Amino acid sequence: MARALLDLGAKENVPLSELVSFRVGGPAAFTLQPKDEWVLCRALNLCRDEHIPVILLGNGTNVLPSDEGFSGLILQMSGDDAAPVFEGTKVTAGAGCSLTALAKESIQRGLMGLERLCGIPGTLGGAVAMNAGAYGGEIKSVLSRVRCYRDGTFVWEDARLDDMGYRKSPYAWPKTVVTAVELELSPDDGTAAATMADCMKKRREKQPLSLPSAGSTFKRPEGHFAGALIEGCGLKGYSIGGAQVSELHAGFLVNRGGATAGDVEALMRYVQDVVYAETGVHLEPEVKRLEELLCIF
Ligand SMILES: Cc1cc2nc3c(=O)[nH]c(=O)nc-3n(C[C@H](O)[C@H](O)[C@H](O)COP(=O)(O)OP(=O)(O)OC[C@H]3O[C@@H](n4cnc5c(N)ncnc54)[C@H](O)[C@@H]3O)c2cc1C
Q1: How far is the CA of 126 from the centre of ligand 1 (A)?
Q2: Does a cis peptide bond (omega within 30 degrees of 0) precede residue 174?
Q3: Domain boundary at 130, 157, 187, which?
Q4: What are the E-state strand segments in 256-296?
């Protein structure tokens, strides 16, 4: 089994802390960045036949692993698997394409639609799986078709926009593997570059970008902002071990150095408990725990 995975290009014993933006987590037994759909299909078939647990990630910017690590295969749909192809206002790109790089290139090519999403550090596939959004924009609004691997076949399908909502889509692993995406952008009306610069400036000013994190740790509760609730409870700067409620933006839990995944878990629970006790609002994690993504075929 190990030989077959290594023959496909898998690596052994890779620290999860190298794969996720929180920079925490124990070792993964195997990781593989499938270089094409054939390799992806072979790897998934192997996991099914050998009952190997498998988890699929993009750039790991919205996940929290455990300190124990993971005994199966991590598939990483990130990297330059398919450079974007522009045809008029349409752009098609592999799931592993960087969302920020794609946003910048589309603006250079006179197109708009991704300018508000620039700065989200994930992949295009991860953005579709999460329906990523920022500053009033979301990927759903430019999504036209999705290439998915389901039940043993690859298909292009029209985007199921009605099933997409706030950080929710029908395209997230383990239901689906997104391998490529088609977006329908618009001709730039002359504002895209300025909007992108403004959004990036806000990120630099308001987000703790110099410390490892997974972005906003909690979803926005109906009628509230998670960061404001956490700050209102006096938790800005509160820390457990190396995990800290950011001093800059209380909606971000950060690794201020040497955090374990357990520290982050404990801090998440503590913040949820305090906010619930003081405000009655339940904070639902936006960050996905790696165990939630575990699939055994
Ligand atoms: C500093 C910082 C700022 C951030 N700002 C924002 C923001 O403004 N808005 C926002 O929405 N998010 C933000 N995020 C969170 C994160 O970047 C997004 O959720 C992003 O879309 C996740 O993409 P990823 O490739 O890293 O996916 P991962 O974190 O690797 O995975 C996330 C989920 O998507 C699934 N997935 C990934 N790729 C695929 C695929 N090809 N097919 C099927 N399922 C897949 C995974 O299984 C997992 O369930 C931020 C994170 C950081 C660290």
Answers
A1: 5
A2: yes
A3: 187
A4: 288-289
Place of tokens 């403004």: 198
pTM, 2 dp: 0.96
Alpha-carbon gap, residue 213 to 108, rounded angstroms: 29
CA–CA dist 37, 84 (Å, integer): 16
Instruction: Examine the residue annotation and report whether 21 is marked as an active-site residue of this protein.
Output: no
- Domain with residue 26: its CATH number is 3.30.43.10
Question: CA–CA separation, 279 vs 277, rounded Å?
Answer: 6
Name the residue with the closest Cα to ligand 1, atom 14.
215
**Is the peptide bond prior to 34 cis by the omega test (within 30 degrees of 0)?**
no
Question: Is the CB of 56 inside a 6 Å radius of any atom of ligand 1?
Answer: yes
Q: Which of 261, 201, 246 is nearest to 63 (CA)?
A: 261
Residue 18 appears among annotated catalytic residues? no
CA–CA separation, 239 and 206 (whole Å) = 19
Task: Assess whether 167 carries a catalytic annotation.
Answer: yes
- Retrieve residue 266's tokens: 């404990």
Range with lowest mean pLDDT among 16-25, 74-83, 86-95, 101-110? 74-83
Query: For position 81, what pLDDT does the model report?
Result: 62
Amino acid (1-letter code) at residue 99: L
Report strand pairing: 54-57 vs 70-76.
parallel
Residue scoring higher pLDDT (265 or 3): 265
Report the C-alpha gap between 175 and 149 in whole angstroms.
9
Ligand 1 atom closest to the CA of 77, numbered from 1: 41
The backbone torsions φ and ψ at residue 264, rounded to the nearest 5 degrees and listed phi first, read -65, -45
Place of tokens 């005994």: 71
In a domain, 159, yes or no: yes
Strands 85-87 and 239-240: unpaired
Owning domain of residue 9:
2-79
